[in-house]
């Protein structure tokens, strides 16, 4: 008798919606959204959005990039000789995890020159970080003073309503329908972050495809337990 192989989901990928119309505004991020809406009339060349991992900083930066065509770089990519080219076309730059460049002399000099060039040319920098610039280990005094003086806005982790809306959106991106009971259960038991929501939805989708069944609360409980959550009220 021939064994039937386990049903394995094919990794075909999906297309998550990342446009401005899909961004969900709530109390945890509304101040940051208001600052992005204020562009290009910012009172300084730079804006710093900070908050814990998974709070949605990357999506906020993506919204701004869609408006400005700004390149997105890591602090390690900042070089003094490359500064003029960064602001050459878009006159806007996104720097992710900007605090990681603090303490590196070359990166600090490049960011200092980039800030000054943005101020002189009417350009803008959007920096994301987990903490405000006052807590960065910046050694270059002139850069430190500029970063501390830059407008900063905090983004918090999603509340229940936003987390539920995020889950519904992520399932819709995958064209997966789930009941409100599943959403309520997940919101109550999961880690409260955008990143956790993305991982969880992907895992639930894969588990449901492998089992050839719809996503239910028992399935959600098993996936949560596998990820280290108790799955109990």
Q: How does this structure look, described?
A:
The chain is an alpha/beta fold and 233 residues long. Helix content is 44%, strand content 9%. It has two domains: 29-154, P-loop containing nucleotide triphosphate hydrolases (Rossmann fold, 3-Layer(aba) Sandwich); 160-226, Helicase, Ruva Protein, domain 3 (Orthogonal Bundle), CATH 1.10.8.60. The chain has helices at residues 30-38, 57-68, 83-86, 105-121, 141-149, 160-173, 180-189, 194-211, 217-226; strands at residues 46-50, 72-73, 92-95, 124-129, 152-154. α3 (83-86) links the parallel β2 (72-73) and β3 (92-95). α8 packs across α9. The protein starts with 29 loop residues before the first helix and ends in a 7-residue tail after the last helix. Mean pLDDT is 88; it is low at 1-12. It holds the Pfam family Hda_lid. GO terms for molecular function: DNA replication origin binding.
Count of structural domains? 2
The topology string of helices and strands comes to HEHEHEHEHEHHHH
Proportion of strand residues: 5-15%
Assign an overall shape. Answer: elongated
Mean pLDDT reading: 88
Query: What structural class results from the helix and strand content?
Result: alpha/beta
- Work out the number of β strands: 5
Second-tier CATH architecture of the largest domain: 3-Layer(aba) Sandwich
Biggest sheet, spatial arrangement of strands: 2-3-4-1-5
Largest sheet: 5 strands, parallel
Corresponding CATH superfamily of the largest domain: P-loop containing nucleotide triphosphate hydrolases
Number of helices: 9
Report, as a whole number of angstroms, the end-to-end distance.
Answer: 44 Å
Helix content: 40-55%
CATH class of the largest domain: Alpha Beta
Rg value: 21 Å
Query: Runs with pLDDT <50, length 5+?
Result: 1-12
CATH topology of the largest domain: Rossmann fold
Protein name: Regulatory inactivation of DnaA Hda protein
Domain Hda lid: 172-224
InterPro entries: Hda_lid, P-loop_NTPase
GO cellular component, one term: plasma membrane
């Amino acid at each position: 008798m021939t064994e039937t192989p386990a049903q394995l989901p094919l990794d075909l990928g999906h297309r998550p919606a990342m446009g401005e119309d899909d961004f969900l505004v709530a109390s945890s991020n509304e101040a940051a959204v208001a600052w992005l809406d204020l562009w290009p009339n910012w009172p300084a060349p730079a804006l710093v959005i900070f908050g814990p991992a998974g709070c949605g900083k990357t999506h906020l930066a993506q919204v701004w990039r869609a408006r400005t065509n700004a390149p997105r770089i890591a602090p390690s990519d900042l070089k003094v000789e490359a500064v003029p080219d960064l602001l050459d076309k878009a006159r806007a730059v996104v720097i992710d995890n900007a605090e990681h460049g603090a303490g590196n002399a070359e990166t600090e000099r490049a960011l200092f020159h980039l800030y000054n060039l943005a101020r002189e040319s009417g350009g803008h920098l959007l920096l994301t970080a987990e903490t405000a610039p006052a807590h960065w280990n910046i050694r270059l005094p002139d850069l430190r003073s500029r970063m501390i003086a830059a407008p900063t806005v905090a983004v918090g982790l999603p509340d229940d309503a936003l987390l539920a809306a995020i889950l519904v959106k992520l399932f819709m991106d995958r064209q997966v329908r789930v009941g409100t009971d599943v959403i309520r259960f997940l919101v109550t038991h999961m880690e409260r972050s955008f990143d956790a929501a993305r991982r969880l939805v992907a895992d639930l989708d894969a588990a449901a495809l492998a089992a050839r069944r719809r996503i239910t609360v028992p399935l959600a409980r098993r996936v949560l337990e596998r990820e280290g959550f108790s799955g109990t009220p």
